[in-house]
Amino acid sequence: MLTTSHRVAPGLLSWPAWQALHAADRVLCADGAHPQLPYLREAGTAVDEAAPTAQELVDACAGGRTVVVVAAGEGEPALTDGLARLAGSGRVRMPELELLPASYDLPGARLLDLVQVMDRIREECPWSSRQTHKGLAKYGIEEAYELVEAIEEGDRDELREELGDVLLQVVFHARIAEEDPDAPFSIDDVAGGIVAKLIHRHPHVFGDETAATPEEVKEHWLRTKAIEKRRESVTDGIPLAQPGLALAAKLASRVRTAGLEVPLPQEQGIGYELLALAARAEAEGVDPEAALRAAARAYRDAVRVTEGVEK
Q1: Class of residue 140 by CB neighbours under 10 A (exposed 0-12, middle 13-18, buried 19+)
Q2: Which contiguous run of DSSP H or E holds residue 68?
């Protein structure tokens, strides 16, 4: 039985698969619309459109003949179950059975399914077909926070699900972007852009430079990024709308990495005290946002204990 993946272009089969097809006495396929059939016939392989029963297939293999069944996309459960029953009965002399993967998924192949599903949803769903980048923006923020929470909670199942939700936002926005009349782009453009960026910013991996420590890697990254963006200030590119502690820590990180000596404002007020704490946390390698969330969760637990509610 020959299995193929619909995520691989038809006709791109393994060499053992082609050998088996050319050497077979008969090639059968129950699905007359199977995407592989035109390519098999073009290569000179005759394919009979037939759906044999288990007994019929055993009979077709009598006398040492070889029969290749090109499985449909969902497999051939009825046929394989029937063959298993015949073999288990002990009353039938079974031919040698082999499951031969002719093509198989590469890592990341299921992303193709996601793109296809998103495309259909965009076209046919009354809600999804009307969404815009601006309308979806709030969901991107929510999903990012839920991902962070799953990471901090250490829940692996939740982490996998939240990564999927974040990935959905990327694919959804890319699908919407295809329809822009002035500057359209696709998910392939998004992926191509980040691939090019990663290669360019990792000269120690894809180029001739070397980096033995995480600090040297970060130095490569920041130097390359500065050249790309042509920024005038180390503060350029920092999103000012992010949460306050994260913003303060990011500013402190840029200043420290650039080797600048910039004293903190000596003003009075809680905001300036928080700024100083965030800068201190960043210098000590602590994420102030994560630290405050952990403390807040502990406070929440204490509240629930006082209320007599289980954690």
Answers
A1: middle
A2: strand 67-69
**CA 172/CA 115 separation, integer angstroms:** 9
User: Mean pLDDT throughout 42-54?
Assistant: 93
Give the whole-angstrom CA distance, residue 159 versus residue 150: 5
Helix runs in 35-186, H state only: 37-42, 54-60, 77-89, 110-124, 133-153, 156-177
Instruction: Kindly tell me the burial class for residue 36, based on how many C-beta atoms sit within 10 Å of its own C-beta (0-12, 13-18, 19 or more).
Output: buried
d(CA 161, CA 242): 24
pLDDT digits (tens, 9 = 90+) for 78-127: 999 999 999 998 888 899 999 999 998 888 989 999 999 999 999 999 99
Q: How does DSSP classify residue 69?
A: E
Q: Residue 145: what are its φ and ψ, rounded to 5°?
A: -70, -40
Find the distance separating the first CA and the last CA of the chain, reported in whole Å: 54
Who contacts 258 (Cβ-Cβ below 8 Å, separation ≥6)? 234
Each residue's pLDDT tens digit, 126-163: 999 999 999 999 999 999 999 999 998 899 999 999 99
Helix (H, G, I), strand (E, B) or coil at 24: coil
Quote the pLDDT of residue 92. 87
Q: Are residues 28 and 47 in contact, defined by beta-carbon separation less than 8 angstroms? A: yes
Q: What pTM does this model have?
A: 0.72
pLDDT over 80 (residue 272): yes
Report phi then psi at 224, rounded to 5. Answer: -65, -40
pLDDT per residue over 275-307, tens digit each?
A: 999 999 999 999 999 999 999 999 999 999 999
Annotate 154-197 with DSSP letters as a single string.
T-HHHHHHHHHHHHHHHHHHHHHHTT-SSS---HHHHHHHHHHH
40 CB burial (10 A radius; 0-12, 13-18, 19+): buried
d(CA 301, CA 144): 23
